[in-house]
Amino acid sequence: MTLTLLAAGALVAGAMSLGGTTSVAGTDPSGPGTAVPRAHCGPGSRPETSIQGRVPQRDYDTGRAAKGYTCNTRQLAHHGSTGGFKVQRYTDAAGRTCAYYDSTLLFPTDVVGNLTTGQGVIVLDMTHPRRPRQTATLTSPAMLSPHESLLVNRRRGLLAGTLGNPATAPGILDVYDLRQDCRHPELLSSTPSALLGHESGWSRDGKTFYTASTVATLVGIDLSDPTTPQVLFAQAGVNYHGLRLSPDGNTLYAAHIGEPGPTGVADGGLAILDVSDVQARVPGAEPTVLSKLTWPNHSIPQVAEPFKRGGRDYVFEIDEFVDFFELTGIAQYPGSAVGVARIIDVTDAHRPKVVSDIHLQVHETQRRTGAQKNDPGAASPAQGYAGHYCSLPTHRRPKVAGCSMILSGLRLIDIRDVHHPREVAYFNQPMVPGSTPKPVSDGGAYAMSAPAYDRKRGQVWYTDANSGFYNVKLTNGVAKLLR
Length: 483
What we know:
Elements: H1 3-13, E1 14-15, E2 22-25, H2 57-62, E3 69-71, E4 73-79, E5 87-91, E6 97-102, E7 121-125, E8 133-138, H3 141-144, E9 151-153, E10 158-162, E11 169-177, E12 186-197, E13 199-202, E14 208-213, E15 217-222, E16 230-236, E17 240-245, E18 251-256, E19 259-261, E20 264-266, E21 269-274, H4 276-279, E22 288-294, E23 300-309, E24 312-320, H5 324-328, E25 341-345, E26 353-358, E27 389-391, E28 400-404, E29 410-414, E30 422-428, E31 452-454, E32 459-464, E33 468-474
Parallel strand pairs: 1-16, 2-22
Antiparallel strand pairs: 3-30, 4-33, 5-6, 6-7, 7-8, 9-10, 10-11, 11-12, 13-14, 14-15, 15-16, 17-18, 18-21, 19-20, 21-22, 23-24, 24-25, 25-26, 27-28, 28-29, 29-30, 31-32, 32-33
């Protein structure tokens, strides 16, 4: 049976099992108006001039914005002029280290900006991190626009992604081998096994790849043999975003986008799924929803990264942009929430609970009017002051999380005390309006990517869609939080 026939049959038969589901309404322990404490900026910093996270119009007028904003960080390297949603890192069998990042937010709107680096997934040799060297551009179908699906599985040395866009796209799944030479990935397969593309997740053992689309599909793909992907299940009627797995591969943490309603999106949050039978390859296995968690003032749940601390299981979740209806321009609600992050205790998968909220002063609802709306990029619901993507340097007792917060750039959050997170560093290089070549937006930062980390060297890699790839060094003792 062909992949497409198998997937179509599974999709028709598949309907998400809700047996044993617990729905929980979460709370925001820190309160909707309380931002995380501001970072103390040490020597060599170039701090923000306004409230936490804001780049005001006056800084563009005086030329201050062009100098950028740093707090316990400094730029080590820069490459290219565009970026997308992910930065990934891998070290191959010969000890060479490479970075991988998607070059587009929305193909083909930024083709002109990609003329210097190429359209597709950019491969950088980072063996000498001060001098990134582009060694390849991956241009197989999915790599031209992988949207938010690009992921590396370190255990098996595989890079995978699906063709996607903000809604969805034909889910061509491309799989590359990185093990022998990370500078020149080898294409192993390119198949329609993902059905529809947008977001994704790997099991830690690298044998199962999950894909989600924003038109209500979830697909599990067996990559035990990455040259011949096999569809394990395909389900309709779910509305998931980022997908992350527990270390044993038996639990899936799905960012649940929610369902559009007359006053915004309802029931968005976190869905916790039992995928143990899928992981064990039980014939006909499908995920079972264990619980769904919602919380006040959510926007569009993006991804939930699992981690362990103090014998308990947590996820670090981030919402993106603003309320769905405001983002699409259908309606605007003055009090609608913007994307922020939170830490959720998932030790009891049937009763998850929010333990802390993570947002900047610039994200507070009462500040999203007046002068702040006049800052370059702030009026656009697809840019603006909001969260987008976060990642962790490790899933075992991480000390810090890195978040790309669009106009506010890269933010580093100390999470050693999960109940009282605080900001410890940031790096923001906004684009000056009128720059040539014209970026994705005419002004401001456009930091959208999940960062990658060089833990040994104390460096963070991320991309800004308006200005490209950055290697950022953490300074003033903050680098130790990566180790």
